[in-house]
Design goal:
This protein folds into 2 domains: 4-97, 3-Layer(aba) Sandwich (Oxidized Rhodanese, domain 1); 112-170. The protein is 47% helix and 11% strand. The chain has helices at 8-16, 28-33, 67-79, 91-97, 112-133, 139-155, 159-165; strands at 4-6, 20-24, 40-41, 58-62, 85-88. It has a 5-stranded parallel beta sheet with strand order 1-5-4-2-3. It is elongated and about 65 Å long.
């Protein structure tokens, strides 16, 4: 099977008609901050076909912006090529922009992608300043973070995001 993208209005219609089961593949802290009502939390790093409830409904995955959802869909289809899964295009952000309701569980953590951006940006800035004012060798640390970003862009795998997902504030 192939992975199909759907938009927020289509998902809303399916959920209203009880035609779909929705799985949130973000991290627990992100789910606490904002979630689509009745979504099931199964983080993308650990999701497998055994996690998918067999309710005879369409299976829709979502994340923050759509990228992790698509990756999780690919992982599931890789495990079971007969599985038909849908990815919410634009993730929960598209859901919110469409004006559909979200719930919270009292979390106040930044989304994982923004945590990664802040960590890399501040690290590159710090090591660049250290290289300029203290010792040029610090430029290697800035280059390390740049290489990590290039790798993440090319492969879709971000080691820093995997590490940050395990931090206590993201549990």
């Amino acid at each position: 099977m192939t992975i199909k993208n759907i938009d927020a209005p289509t998902l809303k219609k399916w959920l209203d008609n009880q035609e779909a089961v929705l799985i949130d593949v973000r991290e627990p802290a992100e789910h606490k901050t904002a979630n689509i009502p009745d979504s099931i939390l199964k983080p993308s790093g650990s999701i497998c076909c055994g996690d998918i409830p067999d309710l005879g409904k369409k299976i829709v995955l979502h994340c923050q912006k759509g990228m992790r959802g698509n990756s999780a869909c690919q992982k599931l289809v890789g495990e079971n090529s007969d599985l038909e899964v849908y990815n919410l295009e634009g993730g929960i952000e598209a859901w919110q922009q469409a004006g559909f309701p979200t719930g919270t569980h009292g979390g106040k953590t930044l989304p994982l992608d923004r945590q990664v951006q802040l960590t890399i940006g501040s690290s590159v800035l710090l090591f660049s300043l250290l290289a300029y004012f203290v010792n040029p060798i610090f430029s290697l640390a800035a280059a390390f973070f740049g290489a990590g970003l290039v790798n993440a862009g090319l492969t879709g795998w971000c080691g820093l995001a995997k590490l940050m997902a395990k931090m206590p504030w993201n549990r």
